[in-house]
Please model this.
Amino acid sequence: MSDLFRQSVTGTPQPPPSSSRPRPHPLAISESDDHDSSDSSASSSADSTASINTVRPSSREQSAPETHWTRYFAQELWLEQKREEHWAKYHVYLTPPTDARKGPLFICHHGAGASGLSYAVFAQDVRKRLPEAGVLSLEARAHGSMVTNKPGNDDGEGEEILDFSLPTLTADALAMITLTQQKMGWSTLPPSVLVGHSLGGAIATQLAMDFALGSSLIGFCVIDVVEGSAIEALQHMKTYLSSRPSMFGSVDEAITWHTRTRTIRDAESAKASVPSLLVQLPSGKYVWRTDLNATSPWWEEWFKGMSRKFLAGRGAKLLILAGTDRLDRELMIGQMQGKFQLVVVPEAGHFVQEDVPDKTAQLLVEFFKRNDRSAMVMPPKVSEMLAKGMKV
Model:
């Protein structure tokens, strides 16, 4: 619940009077000159087909403000998946690792109401600390990706499938990862670290629990979500959503609101991510891209049982919390048993990766290096030492 867990309901500006808020389109298509939504790909299997459009900076995009996605990622990918039950156009941002065999690839999933650019400055800082690393930032359905019950076009033709259950969102995330691997021609997925913030943490945990990435998964990191406090906070979610502005006069106004209310505490992060949270109406006003109220039937399901799954998930585990959160009993026992690494960042709010992107990048790079199996030096076997005449 990206907009809630570290927000105080009181003191938040009231929305301007509006009796008819237009419903935002679930997916805003890039204005890149290179975007092509035609169905030119051949079927890859009997039950599904997938075609991938890569959007690279056009001349128009290269002259865009420096906070445009091209400053933070190398590529923007549109990944099409056509199946009998749905037609999906997934949207991700990617900077590939310099060597796909060595990685690492940090696979990031945002929280509810956020976008893939929630990891923009973080991705930049990761590359500063570990130039060979790659970052793949996913966007969930109705947050930048679109899933409909029939083929659509750039005008959004096709009925959107409103299913925000955890299994469905997890399947979407896995599809984006698999389609990206196919697009990049990687025979296997690079050694990877899953990173999930809030709702994204629940999705990353489920992927690790399912061992969905196989042996490519080094470990996973959950950012600022604990099952107990998350479920407790759900009772205030409706109040919070009704108290935040429903419309902004400009993108700058929305950025100012996020920084003034300390929803996002870092100005560069806000400038990078907030524009992607909005869609513009014909009137020139801006409204939220994602209707969080539409996701309410699944709020509790997202986090129920998460502590158990987190402890049971495959791979190394890192939990990063803002200073005001607390562990529930199950996680407290797990921490005392040394089952995961816990880091508390007291200077951050709920959007830890945006409030302190450099520190978050440092923590994740160190986490990868500490658990990188290829860098581990195993002690020699006793039989080998004896064969060489060495004393044991």
Observations:
- The radius of gyration is 21 Å.
- The chain is about 30% helix and 20% strand.
